[in-house]
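Annotators were shown the component list below and the corresponding predicted structure, then asked to write short factual statements about the assembly.
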Amino acid sequence: MKKYKSDVVVIGAGAGGLAAAIEVKKADLEVLIIERDKELGGITLQCIHNGFGLKEFEEELTGPEYAQRFINQVKELKIPFLLDSMVIEITKEKLVYAVNRNEGLIEIEAKAIILAMGCREKTRGAINIPGFRPAGIYTAGQAQRFVNIEGYLPGNTYVILGSGDIGMIMARRLTWEGCKVKAVVEIQPYVSGLLRNQVQCLEDYDIPLITSYTVTKIHGRERIKGVTVSKVGRNFDRIIGSDKFIECDTLLLSVGLIPENELTLEAGAELSKNGGPLVDENLETTIDGIFACGNVLQVHDLVDLVTAEAKRAGKNVIEYINSRYGKDLMKKEIIKCVPGENVNYVKPDIINKRNLSEEIIFTFRVRHPDRRVLIQFKDNLQKIIYKKNKFYVIPSEMLELNINLEESGINPDCKSITIDVIPRPEVLIEED
Amino acid sequence: MSESSVSVVKVIRCIVCPTGCQIQAISKGSDIIFEGYTCKRGLEYAEQEFYEPKRILTTTIRVEDGFLPLIPVRTDKPIFKEKLFEVLIEIAKTVVKPPVKMGDILIENILELDSNIIASRDLAKK
Amino acid sequence: MIYDVIIIGGGVTGCCIARNLSKYDLKIALLEKEADIASGTTKANSGVVHAGFASPREYVKRDMCIEGNKLYTQAFEELNFSFQRIGSFVVALEDNQIVKLEEQRKQGTQDGIPGLEVILDKKKIKYMEPNITDDVVGVLHAPTAGIVSPYGMTYALAENAAMNGVKFFRNQKVRRINHQNYTFVIKTKDKEFKANNVINAAGVYGAKISKMVGLDYFKIMPRKGEYIIFDRNAMHLNKILFPTPTKVSKGILICPTVSGNTFVGPNAHNITDKKDISTTEAGLKEILESGRNLVPNLPVRASIRNFAGLRAVPDTYDFVIDNTDVYGFINVVGILSPGLSSCYAIAKRVIEFLELLGANMTVKEDYNPIRPKPERFKDFSKIELDIKIKEDPTWGRIICRCETIPEREIIDAIHSPVGATTLDGIKFRCRPGMGRCQGGFCRPRLIEILSRELNIPYEDVVKMGEETNFLVAKTKEIALQSVEGGNKE
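Structure shown to annotators:
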């Protein structure tokens, strides 16, 4: 068995993994990147559309351009990486086991590990659709890989279920390749992706967007021949008599993404409700020295935000190795962060009391859209610590707040804080 | 009745921020005025969309004997929206040979639209 | 060339007969209409090996099931498929149902089913199966009942049959059978086969095949059954749970699978279209509601797949296993539940028929009953893995992450005797795409491997047979076609 040692192992060479590795390397620590695909870059490589980099580089780039800039840095900094290599196990002792064709089983001993495995697409939307199980059903990302990387078109005429960004972007992509997109069908009463994509990917090409509808039957025994779509009521139950048949030879699913955490779970780290690992304000999981960033932690709207989070993880790993690694620290005293009203999840999940004097970055998402809201943080004794007004919130937009809790006057003895996104009281009065 | 010449000629959905204002382009005599925007950037966007809608085109070009069969490309400047499909056909006819570097011009001044088709990444030989 | 025996139908019945016949010095072929074996009733089946007390005593299927269950022990040792005797409960929810359980226990025990016991101690029942409803008043426990992968076993049977000389022909829908001078001539779309004996194991098409030789003495109706499968992590069941039976059916059961998932189903609806394996909203609702009677906390949100299968229901409601009036033509049809449980007993009966028909039943010297256990990445220790990858690098390329399946296992599935030629064929043989992501990561790679190993273009790779292609054209082809078409006009 081949054995390596490295200060830090980064699992995954997508936008998150590359940025984290570069950060660590710049502090003169050894870092090794492990990637399961045959090149560096991750999913960004198949996202050939533009819209990336506005925050990170202050210019608008395509996905591959964004990735290339980081790949170039990895090569300039001579950061070692293993390609076509699958991590099959990580342990609490920070041993990483991977396999690849050339080296067999590899064991890497690390001081710290950065998890950057990204996310995968949900298939749930299709699972409970009654009907046949013919060929011609893909997730939007799978279709994207075929069209943009492998060079094949999965079909001629499409219906897309779910108005996530990848689905809408694929609608335009396929239209540009000469295919016909019949409709994008969304079960929610609102679009789940970005407005910009709704306008530039669907409206520009007169692709119908049908909200409050879902696919209720799949037709065709061999290859899909069409779908029945039906209007849904409040609880997403089908409204009888609203069925419409749409002919198509392909159904794409764009019904959301979920962090990819089988390895994390097997290592013994706790996961939180959003599917990502439970982390503290340092992005450290419940296992000492194992950190997480990017879409493996929480699904981000923009790759730029992944990069920013990955850099933070990199910095925190440097701090960990330089000042905490191998030392017995006193028992951790923590405050829990709890998603409250209209909040789906919040990161970090826990805060170490020793870091209360520092600015903490909170990221969270709402469950449903709302206007003129109040974002408030309150402790377990109902004392309000922080308040902020926001004009518009929507589930597809991740909210980020930098807060110094000590300066906000948090009671250091509190056990938990709850984050609520509620209608502003004054708005309620106004409307009365 | 001079008011009769006032009509909404186009509704533009602003994409500058998630608010998504509906901006109306209204023809008033020989003038076009915009209503419904809530910020300056919104007005600029609406004017551009009304008079000269342009888009960055991102697609792929076929590669002969490359590490991958396709290379992602884009226009280096936005091009007229109405020309997109002509440009796409021109690109579809093209085949390039590796190695390619990010930023290499693969098709110069495509259809004389004052925009080049450039590579979005490096691509090695097979 | 004239075969001694041709079997029509590559389901579990046909493959089991093929394998058990492969012991003898006979030239045997099996014809399957679909692109792969185990594509019909066998694929969408509960996978339960019944103890055998459920059918009334006047039915042949009762004897076949009781004997068949016992024969699983040896088959399991020889063929290395997944099989576990986990035991079943018939669940009584009302006091008056206990009488029925007692009656089944008594008759079953008299007929030689070991270990049957009626348990009324609720604590004990709950201990044995914690997920069972609090409303349970008693159960009939059958410890010899088991679970099996119906298609996994069928592949094992076919592989072993092929190892012992049986020829398998897929994509061979039988169009005509001529019968002259004690020889059958079977015509398919593109081939002609001759045989002295024909075994009709054509499932829902059994009556159609029988009619081709002029035998029209039974009808087969397709009866649809729908299922829902739940994620492995969502529920762990110890026992197969049946409701107390009614006159119509054994009812909707809740059952673990050999791969650790749980399923609920099947319902039973007679239909007319022999190709209709679609699920319906009403049907899925029906099985969930019925399932909740036995297990109230069914993990509905963790469902990972639903599907439907067809049973071949004969108008006699019993197996039709006949050495028919057409000399050399054996019907093995109407194999409804408990057909999977009975297959080894059915094969035994067919062998007796062939002896009567004068086939050469000499045991081959080189007959090898052992089908080696497929090598699995997951079964290796780290050191073994390292050695394996160094011997063969394809062990080191992981294709399916959810189930940790390397390229080697996929190549083996393709090149095994009667190997996979379709994506579903790979999926059902070694599980890539069956995990949580349902093929999101592995599908492009599977298409690549299948294209390479079978030496066919990407566009010709299919899901499960003709017209189930995954990809329609190369990127740019559709766009270019549109201009070419435009120019011509």
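Statements collected:
1. The CA atoms of residues 7 and 101 of chain B lie 51 Å apart.
2. The interface with chain A takes residues 13, 15, 18-20, 55-60, 62, 67-70, 72, 74, 81, 84-85, 88, 102, 120-122 of chain B (CB under 8 Å).
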